[in-house]
Structure formats: C-alpha cells, structure tokens
Write a structure and sequence with these properties.
It contains ten helices and twelve strands. The chain is of the alpha/beta class. The relative contact order is 0.15. Bound molecules: nicotinamide-adenine-dinucleotide (NAD). The site of nicotinamide-adenine-dinucleotide has 27 residues, from helix 4, helix 6 and helix 7. It is an enzyme of class 1 (oxidoreductase). GO terms for molecular function: saccharopine dehydrogenase (NAD+, L-lysine-forming) activity.
Length: 371
C-alpha cells in the first residue's frame, strides 16, 4: 500500500432503469479492510440500500457530487455520465465509457477528458495478459435472456399473444425462477411439452449463463442443445435449429459468417418448424455481419419482442441490450467479485499490467480522437 490510501468514489448512476452497482458492500468491505478510502453517493433505486454501504464504513455523500471530489479520487461507476454536459473531466474515471469502439459521440467524450486532463480506465477493457476481460456481465445476460425467452414461449403456449412487458427488475434469481417455473407448469398443464432450447456460443460467458438458467428452471439436459465453434464450423444456415423451440444466440461476433437462420427458411418451414422464439443476447442487429438477420430493431423490458413479419407461424425475437439489469443484485455481486483482484491492485496502478494496458488504450484513443 502507498502512504496515501486509494480513494474510490462510487458515483450514483444516472441512466434510467440502472439498478446495478459496480461493487456491493461485501466487496467494499474487503477494500476498506486493506486500507482503501471509499465514498459512496446516495442513490435511492440501487439494488443495494445506501444504509448497507454506510454500515460497512463508507462515507456517504449526495448523488452527483463527484465533480467536487478530491482530485486524486477514482470516480467509479458503471454506465454513462450525465448527458448534455460538455464540462471538462478532471478525475480518473472507471466505468463503461462506450467510446473506444468509435461509438456515437466518442470524440466528444474524449475531448472532455482531454480538456480536463482526466483519464478514463474503461471497465470493458480491463483485460488479462491473454486479452480476457477480468470482469463482465455476460453470464447474467445469457441467464436473464433465456428467462425472457422462456417467458415469451410460455405466453405463446398459453395463447396469451405477445408478452406485454417483463417485470424488471426482479429482487433476486429465486423470484425469477419461481415465476417462470409456475408459467412453465401452466403451459405444460395446457398440453405443451417442455421446450427444447439451443444455445449458440454455449462455451462463452453468456452461453454458460443461458444453459444454466434453462437447467435451473427444470429443462431436461436432453432438451438443451449446446453449440459453439465446433458445431458451426461447417457454416450455416442450419435447418436443425428449426427443430428447437427457443434459440439463444450468445456468440461473440468478430467476422462475417454465414447466417445461422434466415427469414426465407422460417417462411418455407412455417408448417413444420418448432422454432418460435429467438433471444439474440449478442444483439448485433446493426451489424451487416449479424448471424441471425431476421429482425432489425432492438427491444426493451417494457416492449420485449418484435415479430418477424411474413413468415407464417409466429416467430418472436427478444433483443434487449441491457439484460443483466433484470437481476441487478446477482449481476452486481458477480461483477464486483470478479473485479476485486484488479481493484486490489489499484495502489500499484502504474505497474499493474491490467491497469497499465487500460491506461495505454486510453492514451491511444485520445491521440486518435485528436487526429
Ligand atoms: N444483451 C446484453 O445485455 C449483453 C450483455 C453482455 C454481453 N452481451 C454480448 O454477448 C456477446 C457474447 O459475450 P460473452 O461475454 O459471452 O463472450 P465470450 O467471448 O465469453 O463468449 C462467446 C462465445 O461465442 C463463441 N463463438 C464465437 N463465434 C462463434 C460462431 N461462429 N459459432 C459458434 N460459437 C461462436 C466463442 O467460441 C465463445 O465461446 C457479446 O457480443 C456481448 O457484447 C450482451
């Protein structure tokens, strides 16, 4: 530990519907025990009550006061900073900046860091020596995405039409599983057989979460089809996928690949196909390389599905890009636990390889934005 304690300042999230936290009080306690100083901005709708942070020994302050934090404090959050603000950023921020992949407004955000001499150590790019992310929300995205897919399937089987909304967030995974087990039982009572679920990218973070959720709500192992690179190496489209009820796409898309399914094949097999729900966890629908090119718009918890038009038998798609917020508590617990070893290395920020790589990436992107 350096003589000055590392000061982490957990800011309130301003993004609507964001109930997750970057670290839970349990993890905070571990950092405090090793000498960190931790300030937490109050936020009434977090999945963890303010009092829990206070109980473990954090200093509590009002939301949005990070701008006046001591200059050496790390401003720590998850999602976007308040929008419509071009003020210079003077601190070192740790959060998902969504600006290193040239997203809309990337240069504007980096200009704020340049103008304030601040730094962004982006959570998405904290990677180990082989390029693996040290912490990510993928597992819970696959887990919750499969939950929404099963919910949509139940609605179809219960003859209830399109699913109006998903009651996000759930207090915990047990509550979500209880709700879905009851829905599955009701569908089965009405004559449905348990769904077959295919997960592509099954060996990845999202894919593992997807398979686990299916298992945990009682889908038999024989009904879960697990595909990864090996199974798709022959190239799509794959007519076998029409024989499952729910397809969960969890791949990490890096290049153009033949599509897994197409609208033509959905249409041609309208009379025979079982497939009626696609959960596109990967959500690459804006990419020309999208391997499930049967829809063009994202969905939300308040409007969870789009219907693929003109393909006969119903085919609904879930494409929610903030799936882990359905279970903010478990999502936050997993993320914080994975991040802990990296946070513990913050006192050595100038030598630790994860933080050094993140800093270099920021410097490179800043230089690129200036060109
Ligand atoms: N919707 C959401 O809320 C949400 C949240 C988190 C992540 N994501 C997205 O989910 C995707 C997956 O993330 P992850 O963390 O699980 O990645 P990951 O790297 O852990 O796993 C991806 C898996 O896909 C497999 N794969 C890649 N190409 C494939 C192909 N052609 N055929 C079969 N398998 C293939 C890989 O082998 C790997 O096992 C990313 O695009 C990520 O941005 C979405």
């Amino acid at each position: 530990m350096t003589s000055q304690p590392v000061h982490l300042w957990i800011r309130a999230e301003v993004k609507s519907q964001e109930h997750r936290v970057p670290i839970t009080p349990e993890i905070v306690k571990k950092l405090l025990d090793t000498g960190f100083k931790i300030t937490v901005e109050k936020q009434h709708d977090r999945c963890v009550a303010d009092a829990e942070y206070e109980k473990v020994g954090c200093t509590m302050v009002e939301g949005g006061t990070w701008r006046t934090a001591p200059s050496d404090a790390y401003i720590f959050g998850l999602k976007e900073l308040p929008e419509n603000d071009d003020s210079p950023l003077t601190h070192t921020h740790i959060y998902f900046g969504h600006c290193f992949k040239y997203q809309t407004g990337w240069k504007d955000l980096l200009a704020r860091f340049r103008n304030g001499k601040g730094v962004l150590l982006d959570l998405e790019f904290l990677q180990d020596s082989v390029g693996r992310r040290v912490a990510a929300f993928g597992y819970m995205a696959g887990y919750t995405g499969t939950a929404v897919g099963i919910d949509v399937w139940c609605n179809q089987k219960l003859g209830s039409g399109a699913l109006e909304k998903v009651n996000a967030p759930y207090p915990d995974a047990d509550a979500l599983k209880k709700y879905l087990k009851e829905r599955i039982d009701a569908a089965v009572e009405k004559g449905a057989v348990l769904p077959r679920v295919a997960v592509i990218g099954a060996l990845g973070r999202c894919g593992r979460g997807a398979c686990d959720f299916a298992t945990e709500v009682g889908i038999p192992e024989d009904n879960i089809v697990r595909w990864d690179m090996n199974e798709t190496k022959g190239g799509g489209p794959f007519p076998q996928l029409l024989d499952v009820d729910i397809l969960v796409n969890c791949i990490y898309l890096t290049e153009k690949i033949p599509p897994f399914i197409t609208t033509d094949m959905l249409k041609e097999t309208s009379e025979t196909r079982k497939l009626s729900v696609l959960v596109d966890v990967s959500c690459d629908y804006t990419s020309e390389n999208n391997p499930v090119p049967v829809y063009t718009e994202g969905t939300t918890f308040s409007n969870p599905t789009v219907v693929v038009p003109d393909v006969g038998k119903v085919m609904e798609v879930v494409a929610i890009d903030h799936l882990p917020t359905l279970l903010p508590k478990e999502s936050s617990e997993r993320f914080g636990a994975d991040l802990l070893p990296t946070l513990l290395a913050l006192p050595q920020v100038k030598e630790d390889e994860v933080w050094c790589r993140a800093r270099k990436l920021f410097d490179d992107k800043l230089a690129e934005a200036e060109k």
